[in-house]
User: Which sequence fits this backbone?
């Protein structure tokens, strides 16, 4: 399922507990340790929530086919976020929702990421920082994929601007925006 609306982006267990009590169906886990993953996904499933894991930020897991195999067989997340093309391809191959994260540092980074997205064919793209509405539109026009705005989004007006620019969702670790 392609995420829409405001997406809680969880950095620690305190945020996880709060997000479990929210009305959101999808939770993005940004930072975690390998030893925590099964219980995180298990707790979330009991609350009828899907977990999307940021593969690159899982401490103790190598971003290769064996790491993905472990996640699929043992952890069973609903989706994966990554900046790495090989991880996105593995997620797609294993029928997980694959969200390609792209950092827009400059025009060269934009070009490079567009080429990567066309090769990996993710389900969705997350643009960071999410405060650049014109880039949300450009990435969508270039790739034809749904775009999530993320990174540095800290105000309701920024959520509105991203959504008005065409973002299907906005990820934020600012829990004050989770119910916006």
Assistant:
């Amino acid at each position: 399922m392609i995420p829409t609306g405001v997406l809680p982006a969880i950095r620690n267990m305190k945020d996880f507990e709060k997000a479990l009590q929210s009305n959101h169906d999808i939770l993005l886990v940004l930072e975690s340790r390998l030893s925590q993953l099964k219980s995180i996904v298990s707790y979330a499933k009991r609350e009828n929530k899907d977990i999307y894991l940021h593969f690159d930020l899982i401490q103790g897991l190598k971003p290769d086919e064996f790491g993905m195999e472990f996640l699929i067989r043992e952890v069973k997340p609903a989706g994966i976020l990554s900046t790495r093309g090989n991880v996105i391809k593995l997620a797609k191959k294993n029928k997980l929702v694959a969200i390609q994260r792209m950092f827009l540092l400059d025009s060269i980074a934009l070009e490079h990421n567009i080429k990567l997205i066309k090769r990996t064919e993710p389900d969705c793209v997350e643009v960071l920082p999410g405060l650049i509405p014109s880039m949300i539109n450009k990435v969508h026009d270039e790739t034809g994929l749904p775009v999530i705005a993320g990174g540095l989004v800290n105000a309701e007006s920024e959520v509105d601007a991203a959504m008005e620019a065409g973002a299907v969702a906005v990820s934020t670790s600012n829990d004050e925006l989770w119910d916006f």
